[in-house]
Design a protein that fits this description.
about 375 residues, alpha+beta, Nucleotidyltransferase, domain 5, seven-stranded mixed beta sheet, 19 strands, about 25% strand, binds adenosine-5'-triphosphate, binds magnesium ion, MreB-like_C, ParM/StbA family protein, ATPase_NBD, ALP_N
């Protein structure tokens, strides 16, 4: 059986949703070199300890071992993406994406056992690239995803020594932010849910970790002339917060993802050695305010360039983080926010994969 899935290969995290399951799941896009680790207490779920060896013809290094996602989060040698990385060509992103596809294949229990002990899972996937990368890189990106890959789980609880062949049969590549609007405009059946978005001219500001995309969508088609992308995202500001906290208190966050998780949970107090505690809220506010002003300026500029835009949606994980600051900076300008804004793209990619299979909608 071929699974239909949407996968959002984000610079901050990879989100995956499979047709028929409501909930997307997410793995931080972070890896570290893997090794025989000393396990004092086994993790209580497989997701917390993704320890894999990956073989893929698309990777420059084959059969390497990696700690992926949560397991790499606190690791000294962990790697997070930089703004110079291109996610269409990034080995790291592909490693995390293949791990996610293999993991999903095993936990959903539908992976068919092939020869010997290898499980097999086949996918048709929808995914996407930022506005600026799309034209140049959508073909190489598709080629890297397609084909047969192999993921072996090592010390991962419940999945120890399981080997999965991940076969990607087809990949439909769309544009970040645009797919999100397709999701908002349609039901799961792909019938129209929101006539205004479906037939209107909609501005989008999709704030990711490293890129912010401004697609303009006209009756569900991307406007080539007015769509735009910026090489800046919330990570730029998270990195600045990490630097300032280190300068002020000597406290070093082990990863951007760690800080992001704290901001998400509104835990602004950090623990220092010797029972000291400090509140980093003021530092966070300062940088997020700056981010919001910049975003609002960019939105204004886009809206002035294309006055036909009827309404502007602010989405992506960055929108969730910056919402109160952006509302403040926007003044009387009306902007729209949604719930679950970091999962709109992935849900949209799944629908794009569905609709392209049925050849119905030109997103
Ligand atoms: N509710 C929230 N509060 C605070 N921060 C959040 C919230 N939701 C998401 N974030 C943070 O926003 C950032 C951007 O998340 P998002 O998932 O959109 O990025 P991405 O898709 O991985 O990156 P990109 O689009 O650049 O490839 C992340 O650092 C994430 O941790
Ligand atoms: Mg994104």
């Amino acid at each position: 059986m071929i699974k239909l899935a949407g996968i959002d290969i984000g610079n901050d995290s990879i989100k995956l949703v499979v047709d028929g399951s409501k909930e997307p799941f997410m793995i931080p896009n972070i890896i570290a070199p893997g090794y025989e680790r000393h396990i004092l207490q086994e993790e209580d779920s497989a997701w917390k300890a993704l320890d894999v060896v990956i073989y893929s013809p698309s990777l420059s290094q084959r059969n390497q071992r990696y700690f992926v996602g949560q397991l790499a989060l606190e690791h000294e040698d962990n790697l997070e993406l930089e703004d110079t990385d291109n996610k269409a060509l990034s080995d790291q992103s592909l490693i995390v994406a293949l791990t996610a596809l293999a993991y999903q294949g095993l936990v959903s229990q539908t992976a068919a056992s092939g020869y010997g002990q290898t499980d097999e899972v086949e996918y048709t996937i929808g995914t996407g690239l930022p506005v600026r990368a799309f034209a140049k890189y959508h073909q190489p990106f598709e080629q890297r995803l397609l084909g047969e890959h192999e993921v072996t789980f090592l010390s991962t609880p419940q999945l120890r020594n399981r080997k999965v062949k991940v076969i990607v049969r087809k990949a439909a590549i769309s544009i970040e932010g645009a797919a999100a609007m397709f999701h908002l405009a349609t039901h799961d059946s792909l019938q129209v849910k929101d006539e205004e978005i479906y037939s209107g001219i909609i501005g989008v500001c999709e704030i990711g970790a490293l890129t912010t995309d401004f697609p303009v969508i006209k009756r569900m088609a991307i406007d080539n002339h007015f769509s735009h992308g910026e090489q800046i995202g919330i990570a730029t500001y998270l990195d600045a917060i990490i630097r300032d906290v280190e300068d002020a208190y000597g406290y070093v966050f082990p990863s951007r993802a760690k800080l992001a998780a704290r901001v998400k949970n509104r835990q602004y107090t950090i623990q220092l050695p010797g029972e000291g505690q400090v509140d980093i809220r003021a530092i966070v506010d300062q940088h997020f305010r700056r981010a919001a002003v910049r975003m609002v300026e960019m939105i204004k500029k886009r809206w002035r360039k294309c006055p036909d835009i009827q309404c502007f949606y602010v989405i992506g994980g960055g929108a969730a983080a910056l919402k109160p600051y952006i509302l403040d900076a926007a003044g009387p300008m009306k902007l729209r926010f949604t719930n679950d804004s970091e999962f709109l793209n992935v849900q949209g990619y799944l629908k794009v994969a569905k609709s392209r299979l049925n050849q119905a909608v030109p997103v």
